[in-house]
Amino acid sequence: MHRRLVATAAVGAAAALVLAGCSSDDGSGDTVTLDFSQWWEVELSEGVMRGLMDRFEEEHPGIEVNLISNPYSATVDLQTAAAATGTLADIVAINGASVYDLQDQGAITDLSALMDDAGFDPAELVSNDQIDGVTYMVRALNFAYPLYYNTDLLDAAGVTELPTTWAEFDEAAAAVTDPSSNVYAWSLPINVQSPAGFDSQSWLWSSGNRMLDDRQPNFETPEVADWLTFLQGQYDGGYVTPGAFTQQEQQKVEEFTAGRNAFLIGSLAHVQGIREANPDLNFSIGSVPAQDGEPSGIAGASWGLGIAENSEHKEEAWQLIEWLMSEDVNSELATEATGFPGNASSVPGFVDGDPLYELAFEVYSSSEFVTELEGLPQALDLNRNLNENLVRLLQGEASVEQTQASLQEYWTGVLSDG
Amino acid sequence: MSPTLLVMLIMMAVPVAMVFVYSTLSNVVMERDPEFVGIENYLTLFGDEIFRKALGQTAIFTVTSVTLHLLIGLGFAMMLNSGLLPRLAAALFRVIYILPWVFTASIVVILWQLLLNPNGVINYLLEAASLIDSKVEWFSNPSLALGTVIFINVWAGYPFIMISLLAGLQGIPGDLYEAAEIDGAGWRARFFNITIPQLFPILLAVAMLDFIWNLQQFPIIWLATGGGPLNATETIATFTYNLAFSKHEFAMASASGVVLFVVSAIVALFYVRHQKARD
Amino acid sequence: MTTTRSRGRSVGAQRVALWIGLTLGAIFAGFPALWMLLSSFKPNTEIFQFPPTFLPDTFTIGAYTDILTNPEKLRFFINSYLVAGAVVLLTLLAGIMAGYALSRFQFPLKSLLNTVVISVQAVPPITLLIPYFGLVVWLKLYDSLWALMLTYMVATIPYAILMMTGYFNTIPRELDEAVKVDGGNTMRTLWQVLVPIARPGIVSVGAYTFMVAWNEFLFALTLTQSRENRTVPVGIQLLMGEHSFKWSEMMAMSVLGCLPVLVLFLIFQRQFVSGMTAGAVKS
């Protein structure tokens, strides 16, 4: 069957070449060109990414880097399609949500072997996530998701002390929420088209609890029940901005920026954006309140790097990754992106001098960095399922126990044969 | 010309054939050596409650969209073609009426998300007019979501029908109307006895194409709601996408695609037979 | 102008009804677009202000200058027009020739061809994406504008054939007979008789084809990767970041993109009032 398809297509290929006029000439000379597909260039200030690559090229004669920018929202789909057709770029920016599936698809290569060959010590990395004992992704940057709060709104509502427990948060939320003037305590975007952010999970993690136990779902615990009950209470209390079931991450940020939300759980990368968009907004940063007692976990995401299995220049590709992970370059990247460096000895430059960032760094260093969904099979699908179950719960179509059971069942199905 | 046509034929046929083959295999793309499983994927598919729900909603979405496209498209086309407008006004309205057409799907959705945001201008206007007393969650309310998505789809899709029918209206001989008028026929009689029958070939062709396209409408639904909340806007297209790109079940996704293909092909077959009967 | 010329007071009543209908329709069609235009002049925060502002409080053309001074972004526009233009020309050519054949001649396998042409429209693009992508890579067309042109033609030519057949069918056959009696061949019949009469149809097919090629996102994203081959829809998507959207710039890019389309349409829309009805020709 396949052979016949190929034969048919061959006829077309000849015609296509005539049509195209000439074929491109690649791989000539001694210069190696690395394709680096990422969404970072768009996130960073203009020219930052290219500037870094120019410096890399200068320090590594014979290697050129071709930056390919893709829209963030399409990253995972594109990589899946590219992997299926063998066109994945040499170096791909990935995040923890897709790393498992890409290695499962055989699309990204064993980095442990490349590290060995290059004599790189993985101890230089803040974290070295492995799947079955092999590293497939190196985290270039980590992004922490603290709690932002609008000091003006809290002052106006007479909330003087920052909530550290769920009970305190509940009180504060009740005090600030005022639908008639369009102010709500927070936003809970639980859409299914592009699940991002950790607006629901943060509460559980900050209380020191988890959804998984040894990579297997563990939803039927009293802690998870309390967590779901808390979310339900927030929603039923009317503290959550309307439109939660289809709200997007970016809309949530706009609500906070516009001064309509008192709280926001979001990446540290938002600080600059909020300041630029609304210079008059007074806000600060703290930990997400825990069920009771000290908050202990902070949610996070990462910018990771992997190398394509189909790359013909794996060694050179690794050189680029190693360079991006080197102490100075990595802290520079961290500064530009307001993330935390993946190199254990790098210090992000933004921490010094800005009280808000100093505060954030404090929160980050005093908490455990939680990335429960990263590195799981079909992480995006699991996240969708979580949101779907939350919608059902908040809509009153499922009880807390039913939600726990439903999550447990679906996640078991995915994770046990994954 | 002919090599181009050949390439095009290949580009049409080969991927379609491959989708058919995929749909009978165990998980392609993800597995290195997929096995032949016959109709198993189809059985799994039809056993899925959400797929069946999506089938029903696809029917509602498509039929409502096509009907409204035709009504609005025909209505606008006839108003523009009435001959009672000054030239400049007619030109201006023609341009305004095709506006929804010139935007790419993601912008269409973003725009409507802004307008229909609980804090958006439409709720604001409705509130100001005392038509609503609390913020309507156009997308997030499971009982409104499908209607909202259909509305956006109608807005974005009618210009195609309108333009096609406007062109069709030009082809109706004027003397037909004059003769009818002399016979004393009112506008209703003229509409049903002349306009509709004369327009019928075009009407039928655009209705069929619009039906097939809306059956697979994806970007608008996906970007607006992702098929949610609670699968309230799930259609075969969003279901297929989820199978392929979220669950990585490419064989199942192909099977789901083939189901859509078969439905569309049946519609197409009816159309072709009608054409043949007419010849 | 076409037809109706009723007498007396009923014309006045009709006019009033018409103007009311047209205005309501224009609000339905145009308000969102107007909102987009207004938003493109607002800073990000004002777009989300509640109660909303209609006219921008803080008027800024920053979004436009950002786009117009960036050669990479201008390239998106050039690519989109290049692709859409080529696709329209080739599609119309193919559609006119094949539509003529299907409308005027009987030949074997005609209904099979018809069914195939229609059914190809029926496979959801998402399912086709991966096999199609594979084919394009294999044909060595990946990351070129050629790939996009071919892809869009695959989608638009069947449509064009179908619609052109429909439009030609509405033209009485006696007209071609007349030319043939005068000694013209079939090609002359097509270009000198049918094409001029079917001009409104051709313009409408051209408009549709243009919009498809101009607005398509999924394949434009997948089949190209380098910046110099990106089109406007992908450019717009690139403004939707991981953490925030550049709302006003997205709106501005969309406005800039549609302006030339509207101008083109303004030029070609005269075809819809050319008064070249089949009836007029016949007499």
Automatic annotation (TrEMBL), chain A:
Protein keywords: Signal
Membrane spanning stretches: none
InterPro entries attached to this UniProt entry: Bact_solute-bd_prot1, SBP
Keyword RNA-binding (UniProt): no
Gene3D superfamilies found in the cross-reference section: Periplasmic binding protein-like II
Signal peptide: 1-20
Pfam families the record matches: SBP_bac_1
Keyword presence, Signal: yes
PANTHER family recorded: ARABINOSE-BINDING PROTEIN-RELATED, DIACETYLCHITOBIOSE BINDING PROTEIN DASA
The protein, known as: Sugar ABC transporter substrate-binding protein
Organism, as annotated: Occultella glacieicola
UniProtKB/TrEMBL annotation, chain B:
Pfam short name (any one): BPD_transp_1
Location of this chain's protein in the cell: Cell membrane
GO BP annotations, alphabetical order: transmembrane transport
Keywords: Cell membrane, Membrane, Transmembrane, Transmembrane helix, Transport
Membrane topology term: Multi-pass membrane protein
Segments passing through the bilayer: 5-25, 59-80, 92-115, 144-169, 190-213, 250-272
A cellular component term, taken from the record's GO annotations: plasma membrane
Residue ranges occupied by any ABC transmembrane type-1 domain in the UniProt entry: 55-271
Family: Belongs to the binding-protein-dependent transport system permease family.
Protein name: Maltose transport system permease protein MalF
Organism name: Occultella aeris
Automatic annotation (TrEMBL), chain C:
Membrane topology reported for the UniProt record: Multi-pass membrane protein
Subcellular location per the Swiss-Prot or TrEMBL entry: Cell membrane
Transmembrane segments: 16-38, 78-100, 112-139, 145-168, 189-214, 250-268
Protein's UniProt keywords contain tRNA processing: no
Annotated ranges, domain ABC transmembrane type-1: 77-268
PROSITE patterns, A to Z: ABC_TM1 (PS50928)
UniProt keyword list: Cell membrane, Membrane, Transmembrane, Transmembrane helix, Transport
PANTHER family: INNER MEMBRANE ABC TRANSPORTER PERMEASE PROTEIN YCJP, MALTOSE TRANSPORT SYSTEM PERMEASE-RELATED
The family this protein is said to belong to: Belongs to the binding-protein-dependent transport system permease family.
Protein name, as recorded: Carbohydrate ABC transporter permease
